[in-house]
């Protein structure tokens, strides 16, 4: 019985390692892809350290910042931190636009990505310490549009990466849902979060942004689905060509009979 349990555990471990290697060790996720994954994730989670070094912003009474405590939005309120944020998220954003070429037939796929791109730019260009309301609107909009976009492309993910992308999407949804709950709590009582858990909002934000950055780099188009769609297109083109030839033949026969 112990042998069976050991074999089952070994099989599960082997399956997990194989799935991990299929998702992160092959395809486009090479050295450059690993850099694209690590750069935004490491940067977002190192913001508290960068704040102590003077690179990122620290509010008065840090970390007990107003309303929600420490946050990514507050940390990147310096020009240096904002520029670094834009640079680190360039690679994931580029992959979003590369990926959308494979699923451009999906209805509303381009509008969601366009809204995300515009609102993410507003998120960076409107510091929360200067224009709090506009920054909040941009943040909510770019997060919501990104999640909708990811949900739309998830069904077209390659089989060997589907579970990883699904897990990251679920984590992103959970993280941003928690952010929304914390914002509601801050409206009800602006002192609870800063006093009792000043880093909770930052952790939720960082978790959501990290998974959003990794998802488009790991995502790969399902080749089988692409083949089916290509075959469908070719079949339709062939059918149209046959109909056109048949129609032309009939018109030729009718012209001969008239003559």
How would you describe what is shown here?
The chain is an all-alpha fold and 259 residues long. The chain is built from 12 helices and no strands. It has helices at 2-24, 31-45, 47-52, 72-75, 79-88, 90-100, 109-125, 132-154, 159-188, 192-196, 200-218, 223-258. Mean pLDDT is 79; it is low at 15-27 and 225-239. 77% of the residues lie in helices and 0% in strands. It is globular.
Question: Keywords, please?
Answer:
single chain; 259 residues; mainly alpha; 12 helices
Main sheet record: none
Q: Give the radius of gyration.
A: 25 Å
Calculate the mean pLDDT score and round it: 79
Distance between the termini: 90 Å
Structural class: mainly alpha
Low-pLDDT stretches are 15-27, 225-239
What's the order of the H and E elements? HHHHHHHHHHHH
**How many beta-strand runs?**
0
Instruction: Report helical residue fraction.
Output: over 70%
What would you say about this model in short?
The protein has helices at 2-24, 31-45, 47-52, 72-75, 79-88, 90-100, 109-125, 132-154, 159-188, 192-196, 200-218, 223-258. With 259 residues, the protein is mainly α.
């Amino acid at each position: 019985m112990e042998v069976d349990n050991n074999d089952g555990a070994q099989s599960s471990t082997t399956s997990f390692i194989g799935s991990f290697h299929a998702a992160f060790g092959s395809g486009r996720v090479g050295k450059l892809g690993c850099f694209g994954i690590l750069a935004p994730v490491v940067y977002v989670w190192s913001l508290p350290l960068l704040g102590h070094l003077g690179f990122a912003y620290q509010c008065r009474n840090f970390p007990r910042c107003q309303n929600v405590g420490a946050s990514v939005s507050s940390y990147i309120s310096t020009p240096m931190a904002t520029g670094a944020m834009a640079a680190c998220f360039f690679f994931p954003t580029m992959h979003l636009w590369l990926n959308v070429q494979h699923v451009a037939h999906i209805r509303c796929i381009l509008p969601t990505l366009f809204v995300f791109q515009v609102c993410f730019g507003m998120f960076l260009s409107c510091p929360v310490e200067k224009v709090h309301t506009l920054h909040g609107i941009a943040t909510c909009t770019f997060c919501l549009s990104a999640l909708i976009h990811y949900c739309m492309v998830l069904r077209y993910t390659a089989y060997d990466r589907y579970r990883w992308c699904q897990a990251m999407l679920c984590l992103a949804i959970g993280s941003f849902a928690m952010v929304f709950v914390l914002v509601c709590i801050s409206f009800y009582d602006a002192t609870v979060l800063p006093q009792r858990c000043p880093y909770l909002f930052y952790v939720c934000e960082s978790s959501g942004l990290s998974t959003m950055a990794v998802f488009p780099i790991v995502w790969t188009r399902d080749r089988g689905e692409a083949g089916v769609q290509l075959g469908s297109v070719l079949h339709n083109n062939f059918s149209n060509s046959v109909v056109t030839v048949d129609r032309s033949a009939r018109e030729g026969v009718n012209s001969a009979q008239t003559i």
